[in-house]
Design a protein that fits this description.
CATH topology of the largest domain: Rossmann fold
Number of strands: 36
Strand order of the largest sheet: 5-4-16-15-14-6-7
Structural class: alpha/beta
Bound molecules: ligand MGD, iron/sulfur cluster, molybdenum atom
Helix content: 25-40%
CATH class of the largest domain: Alpha Beta
Oligomer: single chain
CATH architecture of the largest domain: 3-Layer(aba) Sandwich
Strand content: 15-25%
Length: about 900
């Protein structure tokens, strides 16, 4: 961190806030330490995490520095370069261009593309501006890419987007099923709550349904490696099994549901025979039956689902096929059971509450319901109200590309990286008359195409609320001063709205917006049917009635609370752990719906040309497009580079080698990354992480390959299933650099930038044959002084070259090259960068290309909290005969803090046991 760019704390006292990453929504206690660094701890009083944080949350202090921050408004000049401008100029440009385009082409010619990482207050204002004042529903959000299938599934089944249960139901359950969720890496604190159930209830079962054997499977009792895209067959099969094996709850079905016969007929048609289902889903029949039997025989079951379910061209049906199984058994609205959509982003839920999707209205009301439109417009007293759905994310960028939408304002999302067919996004943004981006970071793949950049306050600086997966609203509170000229997102939107001539955008703080949001949720909620005409319902479960009228002091003191929120007659404000306990669903007749889900395959199938299925997702220590987590050296250590995980037999078949580079391509685009095995991938598919982009690597943006196919109901893209081809990416040499300085890498074929603690690391590979290594390396590293302390070794026979630049006995930079990707350990070299002075043994090691002392190479990091490497753990397991994760923790601390690496340690214990047993045999 550059000291001149250190953030400034508002107060030394500890601030209670909420983690800005995943939907678990952990409470964080943040404080400024004596040395100026930021202290981050889990908030022991927060019900979501009770003091725990995963490794991303723990590393928050490393990500709030001002390096790379967008601190001033900027506009693109005629020469194509960005220049700093005054806020007035930027805001006037946005407002006047939006107004002019609306005047000439109508309200549907402009759009907002927002994010589940906005606070509820920001989101509320953006939605109000677009739907109530500009008068178009062209506001969509990256939650379209994430939760929209769950939203659509909930609405079809319950009549409203409701997550029935609370986290404590996981602890009350006797069986947890995780479908398409790698919770061990993506929702670590929630996963730890699940893992701990087994300590108190040894009979409790964890079943994981995922084509890959992920870290989540390490703690599972049963893993069903379902063929990608076949979940509906699996759950239709389960429904049929439950129906005909005496597991149905007829009283519940009679009293509270509709549509069983149609849904069951569809399930029975293709899926009544478990052997057929097992064949289609490519799972072992005995395992499938074990799952069906356990589900049938266990009353308290929670079925958690995430992106392996939602991100599919059959995503909404997958969701409903799961819910059907809970409805037929009546397992909903009671402790320890229910379908559980695990949300991705910190405010995925808040965005849904304010109606941030292009087909919704605010406060859980529907765009296509005239009564709802009347309620919202009346409450806002707004000049108009959108009455047609706007473009959903993928269609929105198509509409930009073909000129139907002429101005777009992107907030808190990076579509150049995260949308499918991401090169279409590039073409769209290149053509668009006005691209505005509100972000906290200046250089992103999307910002490269913006005409106006608006600096937003980031986590730690901004103030507002977020809602987690269990409907719990928590405050994000500021503890850092606003840097530069950055401003809160809500304020920026209000400013533009006022400049467009709209009333209704005067707020003296986020509390006032939250109050309006709370009042709208209660407005005409549940008024008698007669008042709204016949069957049109106005009742919504979503209500913040108990918080209506909230003032600044109460808002500032607001403790985490689950909606619906009521105020009791004694004046106390209470939340609700579980909804649907009264079994009154939001459909007009008060009943839940079974939805007939006809199974179908993913939209695009493999072919001779594209024989493998590309599956994409997350790694443990990075967050999305890495604009924040990419700054942390702690987080970079776990997985420093993008990779293509492939089965060893497929690697042989397609001629790619572990550790080498490969290029994968689809009909839409291509990328290059390093080949690896060991990610538990089945044959016929590859897995690539979503995080790397044009800022962090030369050509690792996987979004460019993903097919832009969407679910017909939700519009959510099929991110988990694109046919691709793989081939070796031939290079003449591999290498890496560790340096304390910046580098220009324009001429290098392939590179990845990795944040180190006292240095930057570049992984490199090149096509050009380098004849004079020394001259080339000196030029690249900028060391032209012939007197420089420059150690060097070259072996022309195998293309090995290494050079080290030492300044005042400290290592300043080093470069290692080889014809093959068999380069020395980076963790050992990182250790040398931490030393104030190199020892003689270090210098010898540098020349030989490996550490001289035993134990000096910890290997790749497994435990990020304590920086414990793989080699260290394996050595201890072997030398001390360790058998349990607890013993490893006692010995090395690894796994003892956040616990995110426990599944990996467990895997190492098993691997070593297997290898040693094989050697003995
Ligand atoms: N470390 C980390 N955590 C995160 C995030 C992050 O960027 N990094 N992002 C957050 C966000 S926004 C989200 S949405 C969540 C996502 O959280 P998850 O959904 O848990 O994560 P993913 O890795 O996207 O995908 C989950 C799994 O779906 C599996 N899958 C693929 N196809 C199928 C299929 O057809 N059927 C089934 N059953 N499974 C399939 C994949 O193999 C993968 O293991 O994570 C949140 N948490
Ligand atoms: N291939 C593939 N693609 C995927 C997925 C997948 O599984 N596979 N998953 C999809 C899913 S589930 C999601 S959620 C998306 C996520 O994808 P994105 O939303 O595109 O990813 P982020 O990196 O989170 O982008 C957030 C941006 O907001 C900025 N930012 C951070 N804080 C603030 C703030 O307070 N205000 C403002 N204005 N800006 C801020 C960050 O710097 C960053 O540029 O990716 C989707 N794309
Ligand atoms: S599990 Fe980790 S990333 Fe998610 S909210 Fe908690 S600390 Fe943050
Ligand atoms: Mo997400």
């Amino acid at each position: 961190m550059n000291l001149s760019q250190t953030p400034i704390a508002i107060a030394v006292a500890t601030t209670q806030t909420t983690c800005p990453y995943c939907g678990v929504g952990c409470g964080v206690s943040a404080s400024m330490k004596q040395d100026g660094s930021i202290g981050i701890k889990g908030d022991e009083l927060h019900p979501a995490n009770q003091g725990r944080l995963c490794v991303k949350g723990s590393a928050l202090g490393e990500t709030v520095d001002l390096d790379g921050r967008l601190l001033y408004p900027k506009m693109r000049g005629a020469d194509g370069n960005m220049r700093r401008v005054a806020w007035d100029e930027a805001l006037d440009t946005v407002a006047s261009t939006f107004s002019a385009i609306v005047a000439e082409h109508g309200p549907d010619a402009v759009a907002l593309y927002v994010s589940g990482q906005l606070l509820t207050e920001d989101y509320y204002i953006a939605n109000k501006l677009m739907k109530g004042y500009i008068g178009s529903a062209n506001i969509d959000t990256n939650s379209r890419l994430c939760m929209s299938s769950a939203v659509a599934g909930h609405k079809r089944a319950f009549g409203e987007d409701l997550v029935p249960l609370a986290y404590e139901d996981l602890e009350l359950a006797d069986m947890v099923v995780l479908v398409g969720s790698n919770a061990a890496w993506c929702h670590p604190i929630l996963f730890q709550r699940i893992a701990r159930i087994k300590e108190t209830k040894p009979h409790a079962k964890l079943v994981v349904i995922d084509p890959r054997r992920t870290a989540t499977c390490e703690l599972a009792d049963l893993h069903l490696p379902v063929k990608a895209g076949t979940d509906v067959w699996l759950f239709n099969g389960l429904m049929s099994y439950l129906a005909h094996r005496g597991a149905r709850d007829n009283a519940f079905i009679e009293a509270h549901t509709n549509g069983l016969n149609e849904a069951l007929a569809v399930a029975d048609a293709d899926c009544a025979d478990p052997a057929t289902v097992a064949r289609i889903c490519k799972v072992d029949l005995a395992d499938l039956l074990a799952f069906y039997e356990a589900f049938a025989g266990t009353e308290k079951v929670v079925t958690g689902f995430s992106m392996g379910v939602n991100q599919s061209s059959a995503g909404t049906d997958k969701v409903n096929s799961i819910i059907n199984c809970h409805l037929i058994t009546g397992r909903i609205g009671k402790p320890g059971m229910g379908p559980f959509s695990i949300t991705g982003q910190p405010n995925a839920m808040g965005g849904r509450e304010v109606g941030g999707l292009a087909n919704m209205l605010a406060a859980h009301m529907d765009l296509d319901n005239a009564v709802h439109r009347d309620i919202v417009q009346g409450f806002w007293a707004s000049p108009r109200i959108a009455d047609q759905p706007g473009y959903k994310a993928v269609d929105l960028f198509r509409a930009i590309e073909d000129g139907r939408v002429k101005a777009v304002w992107v907030m808190a999302t990076n579509p150049m990286v995260s949308l499918p067919d991401a090169d279409l996004v590039r073409r769209a943004l290149e053509k668009c008359e006005l691209v505005v981006s509100s972000d906290i970071i200046e250089k992103t793949d999307t910002n490269a195409f913006a005409h106006v950049l608006l600096p937003a306050l980031g986590w730690g600086e901004k103030d507002g609320t977020v809602t987690n997966s269990e409907r719990r609203i928590s405050r994000q509170r500021s503890f850092l001063l606003a840097p530069g000229e950055a401003r809160p997102d809500w304020e920026i939107i209000c400013d533009v709205a006022r400049r467009m001539g709209f009333d209704g955008f005067h707020f003296d703080g986020p509390h006032a917006i939250f109050d309006e949001h709370a009042r709208l949720s209660a407005h005409r909620n549940g008024e008698p049917e007669a008042a709204v005409g016949g069957a049109a319902k106005s009742r919504r479960v979503f209500s913040l009635a108990g918080l209506a009228g909230i003032g600044k002091p109460q808002y500032d003191a607001l403790q985490p609370i689950q909606w619906p929120v009521q105020r009791l007659s004694d004046g106390s404000v209470v939340g609700t752990a579980r909804v649907l306990e009264d079994l009154r669903f939001t459909h007009a007749d008060g009943r839940a719906r079974f939805v007939a889900t006809v199974p179908r395959n993913p939209a695009n199938q493999t072919s001779d040309e594209f024989p493998l299925v590309l599956n994409t997702g997350r790694v443990r220590d990075q967050w999305h497009t890495m604009t924040r987590t990419g700054k942390s050296a702690t987080l970079a250590n776990h997985i420093p580079e993008s990779f293509i995980d492939i089965h060893p037999q497929d690697a042989l078949l397609y001629g790619v080698r572990e550790g080498g580079l490969a290029r994968i391509s689809s009909r839409w685009g291509a990328m290059v990354a390093r080949v690896q095995h060991g990610g538990g991938i089945p044959r016929g598919s590859v897995f690539v992480p979503i995080h790397w982009n044009d800022q962090s690597a030369s050509d690792a943006r996987v979004g460019a390959l993903v097919n832009p196919v969407v679910d017909p109901v939700s519009g959510e893209p099929e991110f988990k299933h694109t046919p691709v081809a793989i081939e070796e990416f031939r290079v003449a040499w591999h290498g890496f650099i560790l340096t304390r300085h910046e580098l220009a890498l324009d001429d290098i074929t392939h590179w990845t930038r990795v944040q180190g603690r006292d240095f930057t690391r570049f992984e490199l590979a090149g096509r050009s044959n380098i004849t004079d290594h020394a001259a080339w390396a000196r030029k690249l590293l900028g060391v032209d002084d012939p007197e420089a302390d420059w150690l060097e070794y070259e072996d022309l026979t195998d293309g090995t070259y290494r050079a080290v630049h030492v300044v005042d006995d400290r290592i300043d930079m080093c470069i290692f090259m080889s014809a093959r990707p068999d380069l020395p350990s980076r963790s050992w070299l990182a250790g040398l960068f931490a030393k104030q002075q190199l020892e003689d043994a270090d210098r010898v090691g540098l020349l030989v290309g490996q550490p001289i002392e035993k134990g000096a190479d910890a290997g790749p990091t497994v435990c990020s909290c304590f920086g414990v490497g793989r080699n260290t753990i394996c050595d201890a397991i072997r030398s001390k005969g360790l058998k349990e994760v607890g013993e490893v923790t006692a010995c090395l601390k690894a796994g003892g803090n956040c616990g995110s690496c426990v599944p990996e340690i467990k895997k190492l214990l098993v691997e070593i046991k297997t290898v040693d047993a094989a050697e003995v045999a």
